[in-house]
Design a protein that fits this description.
single chain, 349 residues, alpha/beta, four-stranded parallel sheet, 11 helices, 8 strands, iron, Ferrochelatase_C, Ferrochelatase
C-alpha cells in the first residue's frame, strides 16, 4: 500500500531550527523557448492568476498561448539575461544570502532560502531542504509588498499543498503584506534620492506597479488600495506634491479591463503634453526582472522617447541595497518574535 504522506528525512533528529522562505514569482531556467514554455504553462495554469473556468481556459492556453507566446517571451528574457542567470533569480538569491548574513550579525542563527512560486527552486523543494536541515519553524516572506490573491495567496496555496502531503508539519507563519512598512518606504525613497543626485530631479516621478484585472478589485482584492498607499507614503517621504508624481499599472495581459491608468499610454501622453524628462520606478518589485528591465526600461522608454520625450531615467529596484536588506531584517524579526532563533557563535578574538 502506497501512502500519500511522505516519509520524514533523517534531519528529524537534528536540533530544532528556524528558517525563512523568501518567495518570489518565478522565472524560466534559461532564456529559451522550451524553458519559457514550461514556466508559462505552470504560471498561467494557476487559477489564482487566471480566474477563468479551466474548461474554457485550458484549450486556449495549450492550443494558442503556449504555441505562440513562449518564443516571444524568450527573446525578451534574452535581452535582460545576466551572466549569472535570470535577473529575478540572481537578485532573489542574493537577497536571501544577505538577509541571513545580516540576521547572523544581529545574533540570530536563522536559515534563509530563496524560492520561486513557479519554476526553480520551487517552494516544495526548499521546504523539503529546510526539513532535512532540522527546521521546525518557517517564516514565509513573499517578496510582494502589496498583497494580492494573484501573488501572496498563491504562495500560501503552494505552502499548504506541500503541507497536505507531509507527516510532520513545521510551525508556519506568513507575512501577508508590508506595503506601508517604514523601512521599505525609506529604502524606496533612498533609491529615488540617489537618482536625483545622479541626474537631477525630474518634473514627474512615475511609480509603476504590476496590474491585475479590475474585476479582482471589485471582488475584494486589496491590491489597488495597497499600491495607492505605498505611493502616497513614498511621495510624503520624498516631499512630493500631488502634481510631481503619478501612479500607473503595467503588464496587462488579455482583453479584460485591468487597473488604470496603464503605464505605457500614460508615459506617451506625458511626452505628448510636453514633458521632456521623467523618472520611472517600480515600487512593487523588490528585485529587477523582465517586467522592470525589459518592459519598463526598454519598451516604455522607447515609447516615451518616440512620443517626444528626451530623458527617461529608470530607477532600479531595491535589489541588494543595504537599506532594503536592513528593512528585510527588521520585517523578519518583527514576525519571528517568540520563536527561538538561536544565538550566533562568538567571534574568535
Amino acid at each position: 500500500m502506497v501512502s500519500r504522506f511522505r516519509p520524514e528525512p533523517l534531519g528529524q533528529s537534528l536540533p530544532d531550527r528556524t528558517g525563512i522562505l523568501l518567495c518570489n514569482l518565478g522565472t524560466p531556467d534559461a532564456p529559451t523557448t522550451a524553458a519559457t514554455r514550461r514556466y508559462l504553462a505552470e504560471f498561467l495554469s494557476d487559477q489564482r492568476v487566471v480566474e477563468i473556468p479551466p474548461l474554457v481556459w485550458k484549450p486556449l492556453l495549450h492550443g494558442v498561448i503556449l504555441r505562440t507566446r513562449p518564443a516571444k517571451s524568450a527573446a525578451k528574457y534574452r535581452s535582460v539575461w545576466m551572466p549569472e542567470g535570470s535577473p529575478l533569480a540572481v537578485w532573489t538569491e542574493k537577497q536571501a544570502k544577505l538577509l541571513r548574513g545580516t540576521l547572523g550579525e544581529a545574533g540570530h542563527q536563522v536559515l534563509v532560502r530563496p524560492a520561486m512560486r513557479y519554476g526553480n527552486p520551487s517552494i516544495a523543494s526548499q521546504l523539503d531542504a529546510f526539513k532535512a536541515e532540522g527546521v521546525r519553524r518557517v517564516l514565509v516572506l513573499p517578496l510582494y509588498p502589496q498583497y494580492s490573491a494573484t501573488t501572496t495567496a498563491s504562495v500560501v496555496d503552494a505552502v499548504n499543498a506541500w503541507c497536505a502531503s507531509a507527516r510532520d508539519i513545521p510551525e508556519i507563519r506568513f507575512v501577508r503584506s508590508y506595503h506601508r512598512d517604514p523601512g521599505y518606504i525609506q529604502a524606496l525613497a533612498q533609491s529615488v534620492r540617489k537618482q536625483w543626485q545622479l541626474d537631477g530631479r525630474a518634473p514627474k516621478l512615475v511609480m509603476s506597479f504590476h496590474g491585475i484585472p479590475e474585476r479582482n478589485v471589485r471582488l475584494g482584492d486589496p491590491y489597488q488600495q495597497h499600491s495607492q498607499e505605498t505611493a502616497r507614503l513614498l511621495a510624503a517621504e520624498l516631499g512630493l506634491a500631488d502634481s510631481e508624481y503619478m501612479l500607473t499599472f503595467q503588464s496587462r495581459f488579455g482583453k479584460a479591463k485591468w487597473l488604470e491608468p496603464y503605464t505605457e499610454p500614460s508615459l506617451i501622453a506625458l511626452a505628448q503634453q510636453g514633458l521632456r524628462h521623467v523618472q520611472v520606478m517600480c515600487p512593487g518589485f523588490p528585485a529587477d526582472c523582465l517586467e522592470t528591465l525589459e518592459e519598463i526600461n526598454q519598451e516604455v522608454r522607447e515609447a516615451f522617447v518616440h512620443a517626444g520625450g528626451q530623458q527617461f531615467d529608470y530607477i532600479a529596484c531595491l535589489n541588494d541595497q543595504p537599506r532594503w536588506i536592513q528593512a528585510l531584517r527588521e520585517l523578519a524579526l518583527q514576525h519571528l518574535q517568540g520563536w527561538d532563533t538561536g544565538t550566533a557563535p562568538s567571534q574568535p578574538r
